[in-house]
Amino acid sequence: MEPAIVPSLLKTIQSLQDRVGRYTIELPESTRIDIVKKGSGGMFFRKKVGTEEALVRYIGIRSFLVVMLICLLGFGILGSVQVDSVQPASDSLGAADPADFVVPDPPDGVAIDLAFDEPAPTDDGLFYTVYRVVKGDTISHIAERYGVTSDAIITFNDVTNARAISIGRYLKIPNMNGILYETRKNDTLESIATVYNVSPERTAELNGLSQGSIEAGRRLFLPDARLSNIALREINGDLFAWPIRGWITSWYGWRNDPFTGLRSFHTGIDIGASQGISIRAAMEGSVSAVGYSAVSGNYVVLAHHSGYSTMYAHLSSIAVRTGQRVSTSTVVGAVGSTGYSTGPHLHFTVKKYGRLVNPMTLLR
């Protein structure tokens, strides 16, 4: 349909508001709309395609006119559109070379400032908001939501086990990345900044400090500092790898002794497995002791970072020697039932600075 006939058609349609009778509007593809009756509220119309007719629906005159106007304008515009040839990719915007965008030389005596004239964000110092833990929350998800590191939330709230945060607990969320650090004897601002690779000036500003020594026991916020990898793994509960694949036959803590039936404290976890299965170091470190005892049977003790040590007991054989460096792929021995044992299994014990720790809070 040519655009030139659109006004005449619109005039014909407008006359429907004042006249009653039968009107036919011819549309492309042998489609015809007949107005067969006009009432106070609207009109019946039917659609005819070829020789097929069907009464379509009852509509208001205003709605009918709006729809027809849109259709006629659409046909007119589409009929007038000329399809150009496809533009080569090299001429398209997506293929533009940034080198083509050249800033012209300014006239003499005129300076061009290419910098974005945006105000710098205000420095509000250090503050925190309070968040209440809900079901399904984790430290990492909360940190991501607020745009800070897990380290910041962990140290601000003295979290020692990220797996154990309880629903309903209130957490302090700092407005910037960093950690809280408790100063020690002989600490200075410069020595702390060097260890944690932070700005001493910024640290002094945020904590209201002057240069020089700092009293022990003071808590400082170190901007942009991070916890060590070992500390973060410890808090997140993934410090140690499982030394073998198996099933737990006895948990850490109080239990009935399998031989006497008396209550006794179990110093580790027992992992059931087949005789002779290889046992690997749960963490990188070094072999501090190997030997045999009536209770533990053949055993291996490994020393690790941050005061941690692990023991592997009831082994059928030992595969390492004292002083040897180990990684998590190093085989330290094989599953057995030597010593005070009811069957093949690995007794796995964890200590930190000589104190027993529940292995289940540290195994990933």
Features:
single chain; 364 residues; alpha+beta; Membrane-bound Lytic Murein Transglycosylase D, Chain A; Glucose Permease (Domain IIA); 3 domains; 20 strands; 19% helix
**Spatial gap, N to C terminus:** 72 Å
Would you tell me which CATH topology of the largest domain applies? Answer: Glucose Permease (Domain IIA)
Helix content: 10-25%
Structural class: alpha+beta
Q: Regarding CATH, which class of the largest domain?
A: Mainly Beta
- How many domains? The number is 3
Verbal overview:
The chain is α+β, with helices and mostly antiparallel strands. The protein has three domains: 3-80, no CATH class; 128-236, Membrane-bound Lytic Murein Transglycosylase D, Chain A, CATH 3.10.350.10; 247-361, Glucose Permease (Domain IIA). It has helices at 6-14, 61-80, 139-146, 150-156, 189-196, 200-207, 229-236; strands spanning 23-27, 31-38, 43-49, 52-59, 128-132, 170-174, 178-182, 219-223, 247-250, 253-256, 263-266, 269-272, 278-280, 285-293, 297-303, 308-318, 325-326, 331-335, 345-352, 355-357. Strands 9, 12, 13, 14, 15, 16, 17, 18, 19 and 20 form a ten-stranded antiparallel β-sheet that branches. Strands 1-2-3-4 form a four-stranded antiparallel β-sheet. The chain has a two-stranded antiparallel ribbon with strand order 5-6. Strand 15 (297-303) and strand 16 (308-318) form a beta hairpin. Helix 1 packs antiparallel against helix 2 (61-80) and helix 3 crosses helix 4 (150-156). The longest helix has 20 residues, at 61-80.
